[in-house]
Design goal:
Blueprint (H helix, E strand, L loop, with lengths): L2 H5 L11 E2 L1 H8 L3 H20 L2 E16 L7 E2 L9 E3 L2 E6 L12 H9 L3 E3 L7 E6 L14 H9 L1 E20 L6 H5 L2 E2 L1
Parallel strand pairs: 1-9, 2-6
Antiparallel strand pairs: 2-8, 3-7, 4-5, 5-7
Length: 199
């Protein structure tokens, strides 16, 4: 099953805090973004494989896309001020930070479109025509909490809070590399979860 299917399968959820050896952390400080990513991903997969007996593979699939457009009343985005870039925040029901521009990642910051693609598990195409750098904060109620907590869905929130609109398309598709979970097991010891260490 896909990672999203695994997440939605009702299995237990875990909060993991991993600590990297000082020598490794010092070496990684001098890496470029691409080098850091190429070194970090195998470490995380090794960690998950050790904890959950996780087995995955990557494959390319044709998936339906969403188009991000400006809503009828216009975009509700604030032009970012020049200065130190704020840290991008991306969590369950939250995307906040800066995007330059909406559909393109630059200066080490992921774009809004990129983060929406990750959340929706399908490609999002930038059709806004917006340029420049924008500050934004987007909060919504994740699908698995709808009806439990009060708050808008992602599709409603992006229109109400940002003045943008997501239009699903079942006719247009795009090739996307997905991570498929082949096997995973429950952790049998809480001590093992709490004692996470990356070498």
């Amino acid at each position: 099953m896909t990672a999203k299917a695994f997440r939605d399968s009702g299995l237990e959820r875990y909060d993991l805090k991993a600590k990297v050896d000082n020598s490794v952390a010092n070496d990684m400080r001098n890496l470029t973004k691409e080098q850091f990513k190429s070194k970090q991903q195998p470490m995380l997969l090794e960690l998950l494989a050790d904890l959950f007996k996780l087995e995955v593979h990557r494959e390319t699939r044709e998936l339906p896309v969403c188009e991000l457009v400006v809503a009828g009343n216009g975009a509700n985005l604030q032009q970012a001020t020049v200065g130190e870039l704020p840290q991008m925040r991306f969590g369950k029901g939250l995307i906040a930070g800066q995007s330059e521009p909406i559909g393109l990642a630059q200066n080490g910051r992921p774009s809004l479109v990129r983060m929406l693609s990750l959340e929706l598990q399908r490609p999002v195409l930038d059709k806004t025509g917006l340029k420049g750098i924008y500050d934004f904060s987007l909060e919504w109620t994740p699908d698995d909490r709808l009806g439990v907590e009060h708050g808008p869905s992602l599709f409603v929130a992006i229109q109400e809070q940002l003045g943008l609109k997501l239009l699903p398309s079942n006719e247009q598709t795009a090739p996307v590399q997905v991570l498929v979970v082949d096997h995973a097991e429950r952790v049998t010891s809480n001590e093992k979860v709490n004692a996470v260490h990356l070498n």
